[in-house]
């Protein structure tokens, strides 16, 4: 039976249900499993997405959710009423050994749907069972917010507050949040960056009195349940393409690629590469062994405009040999000075775990144009950041190279049109999105004012 521990070493091991509702550990750390379950990888060959998901996820939830209930939740989550493609996360061959893994067939046309449609149903199940109500507070750089709202909008047991950086998300991203007309949904345009939004959420969770008063819970990728759901598509894709598949993951917060790392720990034979935009703190870390925060720049791939990658702590915990004291010292040094460095042997290990690359805005546009001109396939700017790296990796890779296509191109039509001179159309279920009325509040980057807003509206 898997229990969960904090990366900072505090508290006692927790159940999946406790971790789901808490989000962040009381000591400020992130929850990780005490041990990694092992998959019988070859026995999963030929199984459907939901069947693979059950085998991947059940060991992580077994103490809290029985198989029959899990299967019911998975069938509801990944059925045709929610995901528009029968394969849920289908592969698209671009050329040669280069593929795109399309993660945008859910209701908000971004990869966050894969986890957050599952998470919303988990919350419903657990809260109803325990007759509880929670206040979800989340930060988004664009996609998490709409996917979380879509997953929780029908729940009687949840109030959800989403913070996003004012003027730093695309119009489609914003409207997918602000046009949802549900009494339990609250959108906050914060006057600051995504890192300011994320820090505000962490500060609210670290305020023990406010956390208890509002019964706070999290939907950001700090919530372990989201990572668990994302492991599945690494498994299904490797089953389809074979051992040695390399996954290239456009990343800012490190949650999506960490799910790939989890799959590897479970015995899935894959390789991992990260791709960043000009906000390249993660690429610089793998190149130099030093994590150093710099100014956050607005880019054509706004969901990756991040300097503080909240999920990276989970990987560092493993890298430090699961030594919570060493991890805490490094994170405190980073918080106080804006940087920390790895010993040489740990830097070398990190470079074995991940390939790292970066792509600026001009290269992003050039990549969108190149792929469209050569194949007719449209990329959103985040996926283009990954494809640019994948094109280089594919030249020497022995196996398939798969870029995670994290959003539908219509979610970022301005960038796509600039590159291709063609404006991608929204899918039919979102065709009238730009004419729907919006509802949101604008607040300064001030913790007290945010907490007052939440108290008043929850």
Task: Kindly describe this structure.
With 458 residues, the protein is an alpha/beta fold. The chain has a domain at 91-107 and 224-420: 3-Layer(aba) Sandwich (Rossmann fold). Helix content is 45%, strand content 16%. The strands form four sheets. The protein has a six-stranded mixed sheet with strand order 3-4-14-9-10-13, with helices on both faces. The chain has a five-stranded parallel sheet with strand order 8-5-6-7-15, sandwiched between helices. The longest helix has 19 residues, at 112-130. It is globular. The mean pLDDT is 95.
Topology:
Blueprint: E1 4-6, H1 16-22, E2 31-33, H2 49-61, H3 67-77, E3 91-95, E4 98-102, H4 112-130, E5 134-139, H5 143-152, E6 158-165, H6 171-178, E7 185-191, H7 194-206, H8 208-214, E8 216-217, H9 224-241, E9 245-250, H10 255-265, E10 270-276, H11 281-288, E11 290-292, H12 312-319, H13 324-337, E12 339-341, H14 344-353, E13 355-358, H15 361-375, H16 381-393, E14 401-405, H17 413-420, E15 441-444, H18 447-457
Parallel strand pairs: 4-14, 5-6, 5-8, 6-7, 7-15, 9-10, 9-14, 10-13
Antiparallel strand pairs: 1-2, 3-4, 11-12
Helix pairs in contact: 2-3, 2-9, 4-5, 4-9, 5-6, 9-10, 15-16, 15-17
């Amino acid at each position: 039976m898997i229990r969960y521990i904090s990366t900072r070493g505090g508290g006692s091991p927790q159940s999946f249900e406790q971790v789901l509702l808490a989000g962040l550990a009381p000591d400020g750390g992130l929850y990780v499993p005490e041990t990694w379950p092992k998959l019988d990888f070859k026995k999963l060959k030929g199984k459907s997405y939901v069947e693979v998901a059950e085998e991947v996820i059940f060991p992580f939830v077994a103490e809290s959710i029985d198989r029959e209930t899990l299967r019911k939740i998975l069938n509801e989550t990944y059925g045709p009423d929610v995901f528009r493609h029968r394969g849920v996360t289908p592969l698209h061959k671009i050329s040669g050994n280069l593929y795109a893994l399309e993660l945008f067939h859910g209701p908000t046309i971004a990869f966050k749907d894969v986890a957050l449609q599952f998470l919303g149903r988990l919350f419903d199940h657990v809260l109803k069972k325990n007759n509880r109500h929670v206040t979800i507070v989340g930060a988004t750089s664009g996609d998490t917010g709409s996917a979380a709202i879509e997953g929780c909008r029908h729940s009687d047991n949840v109030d959800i507050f989403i913070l996003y950086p004012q003027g730093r998300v695309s119009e489609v991203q914003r409207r997918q949040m602000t046009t949802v007309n549900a009494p339990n949904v609250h959108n906050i345009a914060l006057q600051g960056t995504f890192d300011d939004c994320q820090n505000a959420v962490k500060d609210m969770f670290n305020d023990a009195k406010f956390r208890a008063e509002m019964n706070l819970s999290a939907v950001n990728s700090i919530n372990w349940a989201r990572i668990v759901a994302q492991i599945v598509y690494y498994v299904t894709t490797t089953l389809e393409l074979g051992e040695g598949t390399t996954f290239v993951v456009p990343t800012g917060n490190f949650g999506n690629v960490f799910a790939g790392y989890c799959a590897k720990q479970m015995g899935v034979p894959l390789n991992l590469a990260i791709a960043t935009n000009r906000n390249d703190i993660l690429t610089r870390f793998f190149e130099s062994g030093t994590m150093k925060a710099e100014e956050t720049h607005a880019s054509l791939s706004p969901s990756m405009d991040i300097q503080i990658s909240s999920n990276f702590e989970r990987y560092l915990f493993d890298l430090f040999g699961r030594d919570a004291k060493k991890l805490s010292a490094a994170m405190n040094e980073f918080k106080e000075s804006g940087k920390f460095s790895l010993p040489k042997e740990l830097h070398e290990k990190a470079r074995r775990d991940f390939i790292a690359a970066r792509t600026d805005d001009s290269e992003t546009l050039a990549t969108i144009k190149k792929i469209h001109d050569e194949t007719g396939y449209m990329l959103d700017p985040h996926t283009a950041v990954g494809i640019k790296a994948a094109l280089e990796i594919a030249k020497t890779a022995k196996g398939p190279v798969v870029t995670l296509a994290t959003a539908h191109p219509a979610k970022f039509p301005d960038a796509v049109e600039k590159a291709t001179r063609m404006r991608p159309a929204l899918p039919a279920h979102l065709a009238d999105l730009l004419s729907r009325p919006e509802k949101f509040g604008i607040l300064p980057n001030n913790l007290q004012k945010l907490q007052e807003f939440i108290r008043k509206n929850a």
